[in-house]
Every structure is written in structure tokens, then in C-alpha cells.
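User: I'm putting together notes for a lab meeting next week and I want to include a structural view of one of the chains we've been expressing. I don't have a solved structure, so I'd like a prediction I can at least talk through. The sequence is below, exactly as it appears in our construct file.
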Amino acid sequence: MKILDEKKIKNSLEGRIRDDIDSGRVGGASVLVKQEGEIVYSGCFGLADHNKPLGESAIFRLASLTKPITAAAILKQVDRGLVSIFDPLEKFIPEYAEMDIGALGEDGKTVITGKASEKIKIVHLLNHTSGVGSSLLGDKLFAELKSDERVDLKSIARAYANRPLAFEPGSMTVYSPLIAFDLLARVVEITSGEAYDKFLKKEIFEPLGMVDTTFVPTEDQWGRMVCIHNFDGEKSDFLPLDRAHTMSDLPLTYFCGGASLVSTVSDYSNFAEMLLADGKKDGEQLISRELIKQMQTPSVDDKIMPGPQKWGLGVRVITSEDYTHLPVGAYGWSGAYGAHMWVDPKNKITAVYMKNSLYDGGAGALTAVNFEDDIYF
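Assistant: Thanks for the context. Below is the predicted structure for the 377-residue chain, given as C-alpha cells.
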């Protein structure tokens, strides 16, 4: 097992983050790294807005770091025998029984190219092989949704049942930024009989002590929210605090399973530690060990996803040493505003990096890759 060097991490990481802040590339960042459950390094840097220093209780918009939490939620329902990852989506939402496949025509309009022969399964939603909300077609269809079609998970699920898929389910993997995980969240609502936010609070957030993770911040939490930062190559600036949304322009009534949670670095670390402990927290098995192992096991092959990274269930998994920044077996994900997390079962490490920025976010962000390198090298 690789033992992390606290002093080396401190020197490398702090120097890198301060350079990012001094250059204007990052407004503020928070970091928490643990090994075998013990804090190896934690730190807060920069500002939360134009004037306020970023502190340990700062709250960040998770964007796609919401997805691993939604994956955990659906796995809880699998544990209860209410869902199988191989169930067809139509079992829970009958409107998805018959789906068209579409494409963008030369004029930019949607063209129906045929009928899907494969049913959308829960696993397809988890590993981005469903064709729902994927590619430029998915972006276009989402942009065309009317305001009354994206009020909540029920309205989103109904609306997308009438939109074509980007490809045959299971035939390829193309990232679904929002809709696939919205459908998973809707399945949780249907099988639990509870609104998705209430389910997460009761089943995941409260058992893990994630007191500041939510879709709808309180007044106190809004007061600790980090403003969105931007950098255009010359000017570094913070945008005004947007209290009407936690993700883009999505309404607060829409508990987007792919992108709308907010959280703190310590809360998300608690979630990562539960994954590292094979689903256990303080002696309680929140999710079965078998399902956590399945979550971190590649569920697609080289034929549809070549390269050193593969989708597990709601997380990317490092499958080859050709990915030089993390060890094989590490898994996690990132968010469009720059948050990043991974779990390393072999070396008993969890690492969380939080920032909220329109500059350099999402999978492959330079800040995320640098963070990985600073921890291991």
C-alpha cells in the first residue's frame, strides 16, 4: 500500500492552488484527503465571493458529483429487492416501452431514424449507454423543453418519453449530463413512495452526517454558498449569488438526479468514506458490500468504451496504467463547476476537491488532474 506523504502533499498542493488563485484561474478551493479514515491533508484557499474568505463550512454546487449519490440511491433500492439493474425502465415508467431513435438533420432539426429494438435498462442509465439525453441531439431536446416540462422529476420523465434516443441502448456510451440520472431518481421516487430529496435525506445524508447536502438550501446554507467564479484568460471575477437555482437555470423544485445537489467538502468526504468502507458507516451497512463492489467494477467493455477509463455504475473506473494520474481500481467522478472526487480501495484513500467555476470544470479539468498528481506524485 502506498503511504501518502503529508508534507509532500502540502507543499505540492498548496503551491499549485495558490498559483491557480494568483493567476485568476481559480477563485477559491477546498480540499480534503484521507487515508485509512484519517485526515492526511485538508485546506481552504481563496475567496467564496469578492470579499469573503472561503472557510471549512463553505457550500459548493456539486453539478455532476450528484451522479454518484444518485447511483447509491438506486443501489439501496436494489438491495431492498425493489429494483434490479437489469430491469427495463418501462417496468417503472411505462411510457418508455416504445422508443424512437433520432438524429440531427443537416438543417439542425430532429429526424426520426427508426425504432429502438433494445429496451432501456437501469444499467444503461447508470453507465451512459441508454441514449437518453446524450450527444448534441440530447442537448437540443433539453433546450427545447418547455418550462412546465421541467418542473420536477415526474414532468421531466414524462417529457423525455416523447423524445427520441440518440442511439440504440447498450450499443455505445455517450455521456448523459442530466436526463439518465433524472430517470434513476424518478425510479427511486416511484419505488419508495417518497420525493427524491426526502429519500436522500433519510436514507443517505442523515446516516452519513451530511448535514449540508441538499437540493434546497436553507437561509443559513445560502449564506455559506460559494459564488460562481469565472476567468476569461485575463479577468477573474465572481458572479452574483444566484439563490433561485443550484444548477444552471433549473428550478429548485426539480431535484435533478444528475446535477443539482450542493454540499461541503466534509459532507462529500463522508460519502466517499462510506464507499471506501464497502457501504458501511459506524457498523451499519447502508448499501451491501456486493453492490458497492459492482458499482466500482467496469460495466462496459473496450468495444464501446476503449481506453484506460470505463464506466462502472455512476462512476468512472480506472482500468489501465495508461491513465497515469490515478492507480488502477480508483473510481469517482467530477462536476461541471470543478468539483472532483475519487476513492482508491487499494491504498485506502478518499480525496475531494471543491471549487465552483465556469472555467476549467468537468471531467478532465486541469485542476482535477493536477489534484490527482499532487496526491500521488
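A couple of points you could mention at the meeting. Residues 6-23 form the longest helix (18 residues). The radius of gyration is 20 Å.

User: Perfect, that's what I needed.
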